[in-house]
Specification:
Belongs to the glycosyl hydrolase 68 family. The protein is 7% helix and 41% strand. The longest helix has 10 residues. The chain contains 5 helices and 25 strands. The chain has 433 residues and is mainly beta.
C-alpha cells in the first residue's frame, strides 16, 4: 500500500552537507538535520474507520446571519498573532489576526491567483477593524502570498512566516512554493495597529527531493503540488523552535506502488524543520511527521499544540483530496503523540476531529485549533445543492459569489482527552479565545 523513497535513518556528513548546500540551489536555505524521526503513516485502514456523528459534525452555517470582516475584500485562511508559546497575543490591549484576501469583485474560484495578506485588529477580539495590507508594496516574495503564521517575541519584534508562491513579476502564473519570512516592529496607539521597520524578506526553506517532493518531481505525471503554510512552533519540553508545513512525500509517480493503483498520485505529508539560528532565518529539514501516501494529496495548514504531556497535530483537507475508494468528509483531522518527532496515532481512531454536515459539505474550511480548544475557520461555499467542488468552479461568477462566504465562520469549542476529541459547542463568529 505504501512506498518509501527515503531512508529515515540516513546520516549525512558535514562535508556532504556543505557540498550540497553549495551546488544545489533547491536546498540553499536549509540542510538536512542529522536527526532521525519515526514518520507516521496515515493509512487507508485508519480513514475507513471514519464515522460522522454529533461529536464531530459542525452545526449548519447560515451565512446570511453572519457579518463580513470587510465589504471590500474576500477573506479566507486566517491566523492570529501568537506569542512564542503559541497562545494568541495581546499587544497593548490589541489582538491581531492575519488573513488571505482579494478584492470582493474577484471570482472566488480565482482568489488564490492574486492573494495578499491583510491584517485586522480588535481590543475585544471580535469587532475586527481592517488594518491594511501587511507587506509594503513590492517587497514580499512571490507573485502572490499564501498562508503562514505570525509570532511576536518578548522585545516586540514580529516574525512573519508565509508562502511565497510563484515569482515576482512572472509573466505566466506558476505554482512554485517556497517558505519565506520577514520581521517588523508593531506600533500601536489606543485606536490603531501598524507594522514598521520591515527587514528584508528571505526564503527559509525549499523542498529537498529527499524528504519532500520538488516541483520537478511532481511535474512527472501529477496534477497537484504542495510546499507551503509555514507554522511556527516552540516545543515547551525542549525550548527548540521549528516550523511545520504542508508538503508531499518525495519521489516521482513512477517510483510508487499503491493498492489500488489509481491512488498513486496521493502523497500528502506534514513536514517539519528545526531552527538553526536565533534569528529564525535558517532551518534544517527533518523527516516528515506524517505521510498519507496512497491516502490523501493535501494536508493543509498543519499546526500543533501541547496539552498535558501530549502533542496534538492538526491539518485540514478536502473531500476530493482523498484517494479513490475512500469516502471522507471535508474536515479537520488530528493526531496525537507523546513525542514531537514521532509516534503519532489518529485521534478518534480515524483522525477525524471536525467535519462539515452532510447537507452543507463545503460550508467551512481552514480550521485552526487554539491552545484552549477554540477552533477558528472561514465560511467557504454554502448551500450548493449537491454540487461538488469542481462543479461549483464551473458555475457563473454570480453563482460563486452568492454561495461563497469569504468571512470568518462561527468558532467551535472542542475537548481533547487523550486520543479522543469532541465538539462541545458553537461560539460566536470570529472568536479566537
Amino acid at each position: 500500500m505504501f512506498w518509501n523513497t527515503k531512508n529515515a535513518g540516513k546520516m549525512l556528513s558535514a562535508a556532504v552537507i556543505g557540498f550540497s548546500a553549495i551546488l544545489a540551489p533547491v536546498i540553499s536555505s536549509s540542510v538536512f538535520a542529522q536527526e532521525t524521526a519515526a514518520t507516521f503513516d496515515w493509512t487507508r485502514e485508519d480513514v475507513s474507520k471514519i464515522k460522522m456523528n454529533e461529536e464531530n459534525t459542525a452545526p449548519v452555517i447560515n451565512k446570511e446571519e453572519l457579518e463580513e470582516l470587510t465589504e471590500d475584500f474576500l477573506v479566507w485562511d486566517t491566523w492570529p498573532l501568537q506569542d512564542r508559546n503559541g497562545h494568541p497575543a495581546v499587544v497593548n490591549g490589541h489582538k491581531v489576526i492575519f488573513a488571505l484576501t482579494v478584492p470582493s469583485d474577484v471570482i472566488p474560484g480565482k482568489r488564490h491567483d492574486t492573494a495578499e495578506i491583510r491584517y485586522f485588529y480588535a481590543k475585544d477580539g471580535k469587532s475586527w477593524q481592517l488594518g491594511g495590507r501587511l507587506f509594503d508594496d513590492g517587497k514580499a516574495l512571490g507573485s502572490r502570498q499564501w498562508a503562514g503564521s505570525a509570532m511576536i517575541d518578548k522585545d516586540g519584534k514580529v516574525h512573519i512566516f508565509y508562502t511565497a508562491t510563484g515569482r515576482k513579476n512572472e509573466k505566466k502564473l506558476t505554482y512554485e512554493q517556497r517558505l519565506a519570512t520577514a520581521t517588523a516592529d508593531i506600533v500601536t496607539t489606543n485606536a490603531s495597529v501598524a507594522f514598521k521597520n520591515w527587514s528584508e524578506h528571505k526564503i527559509i526553506l525549499e523542498p529537498d527531493g529527499e524528504y519532500y517532493q520538488t516541483e520537478s518531481q511532481s511535474n512527472q505525471g501529477e496534477s497537484s503540488y504542495a510546499f507551503r503554510d509555514p507554522y511556527f512552533f516552540q516545543d515547551p519540553k525542549s525550548g527548540q523552535e521549528y516550523i511545520l508545513f504542508e508538503a508531499n512525500s518525495a519521489g516521482t509517480l513512477s517510483e510508487r506502488a499503491c493498492q489500488p493503483d489509481s491512488s498513486k498520485p496521493y502523497n500528502a505529508s506534514i513536514g517539519i524543520a528545526k531552527a538553526s539560528s536565533d534569528s529564525l532565518t535558517e532551518f534544517e529539514a527533518l523527516p516528515p511527521l506524517l505521510e498519507a501516501n496512497c491516502v490523501n494529496d493535501e494536508l493543509e495548514r498543519p499546526s500543533i499544540i501541547v496539552k498535558g504531556n501530549q502533542y496534538y497535530l492538526f491539518a485540514k483537507t478536502h473531500h476530493e483530496k482523498f484517494a479513490p475508494g475512500l469516502d471522507a468528509p471535508e474536515g479537520l483531522y488530528g493526531f496525537m503523540s507523546g513525542s514531537l518527532l514521532g509516534g503519532y496515532k489518529p485521534l478518534n481512531g480515524s483522525g477525524l476531529v471536525i467535519s462539515n454536515p452532510k447537507d452543507n459539505p463545503y460550508q467551512a474550511y481552514s480550521w485552526m485549533v487554539m491552545p484552549n480548544g477554540t477552533v477558528i475557520s472561514f465560511v467557504n461555499y454554502v448551500h450548493v445543492e449537491g454540487k461538488d467542488i469542481q462543479q461549483i468552479g464551473e458555475q457563473t461568477p454570480d453563482y460563486q459569489k452568492d454561495h461563497f462566504g469569504g468571512m470568518l465562520a462561527p468558532s467551535l469549542k472542542i475537548s481533547m482527552a487523550d486520543d479522543k476529541t469532541r465538539i462541545l459547542h458553537e461560539k460566536k463568529q470570529g472568536v479566537f479565545r
